[in-house]
Amino acid sequence: MTYSIKSVISILFLTVMVLQGMCQSFQMTPGFSKEEYAELLRVSTRQSDSLYNPLLPAPRYFERKYRSSTLGLDNRWELWVSSDSIAAISIRGTTLKLESWVENFFAAMLPAEGTLTMSQEAIYPYKLSNDKRASVHAGWLIGSVSIFQDLLPRIDSCMAEGIHDFYIVGHSQGGAIAYLLTSLLHHLKQDQPKYDSIAIKTYASAAPKPGNLYYAYEFEALTQAGWAFNVVNSADWVPEGPFSIQTTDDYNTLNPFKYADEAISNLSFPKNIVLKHFYNKLDKPTKKARDRFNKHLGEHMVKQVQRYLPNSSILTFNESSNYVRVGQTIVLFADEEYFKEFPNNDGEIWQHHKFEAYFYLLERLAL
């Protein structure tokens, strides 16, 4: 991988901007901050995964205190702490190992509340939403729950040291897990008063879509006062996945499709026959596509997951594949000048997903 002089200059310029913005103190407040995101993105680069570029400057305000062992399907997280006693939870993205990609492609949906069995000894209840209709990505749920078990004792230790403010940051797969981990922590706060004092602010960077519309609604309601952001490069394909299929079953309880059969049957002949034919031509293909999605990226993927988690047990998948974009979105818009620096070269599929592209566009963001 090569890096142009212009890219390096942009990165160094942004470093100076970050240092100027943080020279006094670093406080966690609601709302999007370029300087805050840039520093946390630097924290994210220190994971040294497949997107790592050694030319990227290290974080200047946070110091790494802990790096987990490998968890789940090649997941890992780090704890960083600032001199102002603010913690940053950094989640690694996709690696080059096959199990990390198995996690990505295990894309059928599981309920947002249930129990995950990793092994006979590791059975974990989880809760990401109060809405029974909420569903999330199965693979990233495994990663999130695995990290959550290792994270809780560290949060307890931080609280004992007077640390109550926590950033959550992740890039790519790490961003998807950042969403789910945020939900796990919010529901922990609701269910266990001892955690009521912690504050959480999330930056999901270059993240794919983590769940369905009802998961998104609750996540956004919990964080909509400026406590969670979805940062995307408009040229990046990763935030556009996974495949999304919306059927009539995905609509809210009161909707016209619920009464379609009854309404059509009440029509006179031959109107009822004709309209039923056209309605089925629209409705059935999406449901068949959803079922195929669950079969190939759900049932078939279970066997792949069990190669790495041999004693795991996967729940019945939800009948939904309606993945949506989640959270308040900050668009890093790829304009003509951007494509001069990061052109659409055939075969370079990570061109717009790598950290350099995000730093480049962040410098030009007018906020």
Q: Could you walk me through the main structural features you see in this protein, from its secondary elements to its overall organization?
A:
The strands form 4 sheets. A 7-stranded mixed sheet has the order 1-2-3-8-9-11-13, sandwiched between helices. It has a single domain, classed as Alpha/Beta hydrolase fold, catalytic domain (Rossmann fold), CATH 3.40.50.1820. The protein has helices at residues 5-21, 34-45, 98-105, 138-160, 173-191, 213-223, 260-265, 271-308, 336-341, 355-363; strands at 62-67, 77-82, 86-91, 109-111, 113-117, 123-127, 135-137, 165-171, 199-205, 211-212, 228-233, 323-324, 328-332. The longest helix has 38 residues, at 271-308. The two termini are 31 Å apart. Residues 18-24 have low confidence and may be disordered. With 367 residues, it is α/β, with parallel strands linked by helices.
Order of helices and strands: HHEEEHEEEEHEHEEHEHHEEHH
Q: Strands of the largest sheet, in order across it?
A: 1-2-3-8-9-11-13
Average residue pLDDT: 91
CATH topology: Rossmann fold
Query: Helical percent range?
Result: 40-55%
Helical stretch count?
10
How many domains? The number is: 1
Structural class given helices, strands, pairing? alpha/beta
Largest sheet composition = 7 strands, mixed
Oligomer kind? single chain
Number of strand segments: 13
- Just name the CATH architecture: 3-Layer(aba) Sandwich
Low-confidence stretches: 18-24
CATH class: Alpha Beta
